[in-house]
Amino acid sequence: MAAVIGSPVAHSLSPAIHRAAFEAAGVDWTYAALDVAPGMASDALAAMRTLGISGLSVTMPHKEAVADAVDRLDPAARSLHSVNTVSWDGDQLVGSSTDGAGFVASLADADVSVDDAKIAIIGAGGAARSVIDALARAGASDITVLNRTADKTEAAAALTPVASPGIISDVTRADIVVNATSVGMGDDGSLPCDPDLFRAGQVVADLIYHPLETRWMAAASRQGCQTVDGLGMLVHQAALQQKIWLGDDAVIDTAAMRAAAMRSLS
Ligand code: NAP
Fold first, then answer.
1. pLDDT score of 189
2. Helices 231-246 and 254-265 sit at what angle, rounded to 10 degrees?
3. Does residue 61 line the site of ligand 1, with CB under 6 A?
């Protein structure tokens, strides 16, 4: 059995995505959504030991508390002090962070290489930090961080020597532009940056997956950019969780996982 812990968790797409993955792989696991109150993350890990739960997905607000409560962290989780996946290694609980690697995998799925790429990332919250860390691990040569709040910009840029705070015109010289803010989820018409900054041939990726094509992505398409939606990151971070729980040889059907997520979204 596996589960996601968070609060609130009722609208999480993780159960649909993971159940589809288990079914496609013919694996007899169940997957539950468990609402765990803020401050109770270490109790949830104790319950994982007691109940023999094989794997946990972790979402807000528990990612940092779980990083404190596991026995060991993978390199990304250690660098970010944030865990989205818990697995067993013998009798030890291991915390991993697959969000950023899931984003890099979603780019690879779209035939976009990050090796030696120049990236502009808008945002400096939890999602941006995981993406910055993973892009640097995957070989990006230059990451410019653009964010409303300066101290968060500095902290996110300090995650890797290839990142630095930038100015909005840096969007134009980037190979890949990423929106890691929540701007574009609502109906207020605001955009993460002015689409006039885009140039044809750039890759523009939005971490938002509802709507699947944001107004910002649509504007980028009109400017001749390749766009990548946020559902790919969600599916691939879950696919990496499946590999952690089931082993590297596990057959992971990301198409079935994406289809399940799309059904839940509609
Ligand atoms: P977070 O930690 O709360 O960070 C929010 C970020 O958005 C911060 O950089 C914040 O800037 C910025 N922001 C919020 N409102 C803004 C505004 N009106 N103008 C300018 N900047 C604004 O949230 P998060 O977890 O990083 O999530 C960020 C986005 O990524 C969300 O849309 C979330 O749905 C998406 N996401 C997607 C996936 C996926 O799998 N596709 C995974 C995780 C998150 P300040 O620092 O100035 O406050």
1. 85
2. 130
3. no
